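Quick one: structure tokens for this chain, please?
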Amino acid sequence: MKRAHPFLVCLGLLPCLAMASSWPEIPAPHGARVESIGEQVRLNGVPMRMQRVLSSTKAPDELAEFYRNALGQRIAEERIGDTRLLAQERNDYFITVRIRPLSQRVVETLISVSDMNGAPEPGERPLGFVLPAQSAVISDLESTDAGRHSRQLVVINTHTLPANRAVFDRELSARGLQPENPPLRVTTTEHVQLYRGHRGEAKLILMREGQQTRIVLTMIDAP
């Protein structure tokens, strides 16, 4: 089974499959290529199992029918453009299946299983990272794979690019990560900076749109 890094999979998300026997198991179509995504994954503090399935023998409609049969009764279904979404609540777990064509020959299915019983109560989960004032966290994705811990924060606020950069420089420096020079990209609306240190590496993307700044910070700890 081939492994795919969780941050290469679209951040909108995601959710997938379980290896442990207590988690719901979703079968894959015959002949499909299955890629597990991370050994331990959390999205906004919720434990998840994730799986990517690539099929070149079935059309999206056929795959949707396959997963309808696999999930059984009580399925919510929606179609957005060429993407088909299936969802099911099963005991303490929430299952989502997203099917979309990657090309004329290959169809991708992202399967996720979320352990809702393990979800933290609102306000109980510390972020462990000082953000600029009045920032809002859009998503917080964590993964542990082969001893490497990865985390991706997506944040929005109204501060300028230099103001945001100063805060994240300080926080990453406290973690032993220093900016590499020159930055990967600097414009009036975008700033992309790499950081490295003995404890790992990070990539900071700042994007200014109107009066709002969107921040994507990816951190990978050294094993």
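The CA atoms of residues 2 and 164 lie 37 Å apart.
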